[in-house]
């Protein structure tokens, strides 16, 4: 997580759960206002299917005032197209990227809370809600830290030594710090969702590899570049040996930022290209299962940084895509890089909400519109929030952000779970846009009405997410083939529409 610029991301105070699928209280998994489906399903399928006898469009709605939170609404009827064209036209023949999934980071802090502040029953219910298929949140991605971040209980690397000592042979490398909390939590999540895609990122090399001799600040000494690459490969191997496959790796979190009170280091594009092209890429090339390498892992405001690494002839061969953060700039940077390197993927790997005053009244809208919708319309194949869970005091953490918020808040005294606005923003996508879905063309609308559309693999079901940022209700009309419908969206709301186009052919 970066320093001051990250406050640009708008967020708001947490709320309580009011939507109608799953609630957790005292460890119980409760059905709320709507009939729940079985949580024992082994495949990701749409939440429900419309009746063939009455073809219609299904609708789920959330409002910024929290009156509605992913609430199922009456079906929207299919009608005869009006003489005036719909303002959202969907073309399923024009396709873009395939979706990998949505997720949140299992930081040290999140994993510690899950293991030590939830009972076994609460933990089982919570992890099934987060990683289970609909009506669960259906998270298909997560992110781990290699060594400590600001959301750890203490600062450490995986090869710590007394000051003045070095370990170029990595004889003291170990992942003991992950054995109690992170690895058990990830393995439980994998048991629920075996297709979970795990991204791992270091915040700092071990102190003895750096110019400062400290986990805080500085940069990597050139003489240790190959050693650092070996350090990352050893992490991948060690986690695999403990049943945790690392799907993708970045070589440095936020490499253009040096935090002042938690681990981090600056690592310029030339150094990153050398490490990937000469050491890390060749070392991972023959690994099975293959671990991808993602570049950058920092903000939208500096696309020239990943472009420089991708332009390196040695490094680009090994870089599968670019990881982005949300704290500065805008998601259009992803399209700039995509135009230059169309075969490289894009992923949004970090963005955090928080309880800061300046933007506490529009978190649902901002995350749905700017983070999720914005990054997806700019080629992102996956979107990963920062902490999956934090406690009522925004922690535990060690330096860095002191008012960040998790996707959910776990009460450290009772284990009660509160679902924050960001949770519902992610639910509008993750519960309906399934892995393997492809983004399809939809008319760009705005500025108050924004949308993005997908076609799920398998049954071909269509999903349209629409955000109304205006303070007044606005009518939207949608046309797709022989399907046409109209709906008046409430002020400041997020809607997910879903239908099977095959039911509406003449």
What does this structure look like?
The structure is a single chain. It contains nine helices and 24 strands. The protein is of the alpha/beta class and 506 residues long. Strands 4-3-24-21-20-19-5-22-23 form a nine-stranded mixed beta sheet, covered by helices on one side. The protein has an eight-stranded parallel beta sheet with strand order 6-14-12-11-10-9-8-7. α1 packs across α3 and α5 crosses α6. The radius of gyration is 22 Å and the shape is globular.
Write the layout of secondary structure elements.
Blueprint: E1 23-25, E2 28-30, E3 56-63, E4 71-77, E5 88-98, E6 101-105, H1 108-116, H2 120-131, E7 141-146, H3 182-192, E8 197-202, H4 225-241, E9 248-250, H5 269-284, E10 292-299, H6 304-310, E11 319-325, H7 332-340, E12 345-350, E13 353-354, H8 363-376, E14 380-387, E15 389-391, E16 404-405, E17 408-410, E18 417-419, H9 421-430, E19 438-442, E20 449-455, E21 462-468, E22 474-480, E23 483-489, E24 493-499
Parallel strand pairs: 5-22, 6-14, 7-8, 8-9, 9-10, 10-11, 11-12, 12-14, 15-17
Antiparallel strand pairs: 1-2, 3-4, 3-24, 5-19, 13-16, 17-18, 19-20, 20-21, 21-24, 22-23
Q: Segments where pLDDT lies below 50 for 5+ residues? A: 3-53
Largest sheet: 9 strands, mixed
Please list the strands of the largest sheet in the order they lie side by side: 4-3-24-21-20-19-5-22-23
Class from helix and strand fractions: alpha/beta
Number of helices: 9
Average predicted confidence as pLDDT: 89
Quick overview:
By secondary structure, this protein is of the alpha/beta class.
């Amino acid at each position: 997580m970066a320093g001051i610029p990250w406050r640009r991301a708008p967020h708001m105070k947490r709320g309580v759960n009011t939507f109608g699928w799953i609630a957790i209280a005292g460890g119980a998994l409760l059905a709320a206002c709507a009939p729940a489906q079985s949580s024992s399903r082994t495949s990701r399928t749409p939440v429900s299917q419309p009746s063939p006898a009455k073809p219609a469009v299904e609708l789920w709605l959330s409002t910024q005032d929290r009156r509605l939170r992913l609430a199922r609404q009456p079906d929207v009827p299919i009608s005869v197209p009006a003489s005036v064209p719909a303002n959202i036209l969907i073309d399923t023949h024009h396709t873009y990227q395939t979706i990998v999934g949505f997720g949140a980071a299992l930081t040290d802090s999140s994993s510690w809370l899950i293991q030590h502040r939830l009972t076994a029953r609460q933990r089982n219910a919570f992890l099934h809600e987060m990683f289970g298929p609909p009506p669960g949140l259906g998270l298909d991605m997560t992110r781990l830290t290699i060594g400590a971040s600001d959301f750890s209980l203490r600062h450490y690397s995986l090869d710590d030594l007394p000051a003045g000592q070095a370990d170029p042979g990595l004889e003291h490398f170990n992942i003991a710090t992950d054995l109690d909390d992170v690895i058990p939590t990830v393995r439980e999540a994998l048991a629920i969702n075996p297709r979970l895609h795990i991204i791992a990122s270091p915040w700092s090399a071990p102190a003895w590899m750096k110019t400062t001799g400290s986990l805080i600040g500085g940069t990597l000494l050139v003489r240790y570049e190959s050693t650092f690459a070996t350090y990352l490969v050893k992490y991948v191997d060690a986690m695999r040996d403990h049943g945790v496959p690392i799907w993708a790796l970045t070589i440095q979190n936020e490499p253009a930022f040096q935090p002042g009170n938690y681990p981090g280091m600056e690592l310029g594009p030339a150094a990153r290209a050398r490490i990937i092209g000469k050491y890390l890429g060749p070392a991972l090339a023959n690994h099975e299962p293959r671990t991808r390498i993602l570049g950058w892992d920092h903000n939208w405001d500096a696309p020239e940084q990943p472009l420089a690494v991708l332009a390196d002839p040695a490094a680009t061969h090994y870089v599968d895509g670019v990881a982005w953060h949300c704290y500065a700039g805008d998601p259009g940077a992803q399209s700039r890089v995509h135009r230059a390197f169309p075969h490289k993927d894009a992923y949004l790997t970090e963005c955090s909400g928080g309880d800061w005053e300046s933007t506490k009244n529009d978190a649902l809208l901002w995350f749905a519109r700017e983070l999720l919708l914005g990054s997806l319309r700019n080629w992102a194949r996956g979107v990963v929030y920062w902490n999956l869970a934090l406690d009522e005091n925004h922690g535990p953490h060690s330096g860095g952000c002191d008012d960040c918020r998790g996707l959910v808040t776990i009460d450290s005294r009772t284990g009660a779970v509160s679902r924050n606005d960001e949770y519902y923003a992610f639910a509008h996508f993750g519960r309906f846009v399934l892995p393997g879905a492809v983004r399809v063309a939809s008319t760009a609308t705005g500025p108050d009405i924004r949308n993005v559309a997908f076609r799920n693999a398998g049954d071909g079901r269509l999903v349209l997410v629409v955000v109304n940022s205006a303070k007044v209700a606005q009518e939207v009309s949608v046309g797709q083939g022989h399907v046409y419908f109209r709906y008046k969206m409430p002020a400041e709301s997020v809607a997910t529409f879903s239908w099977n186009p095959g039911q509406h052919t003449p």
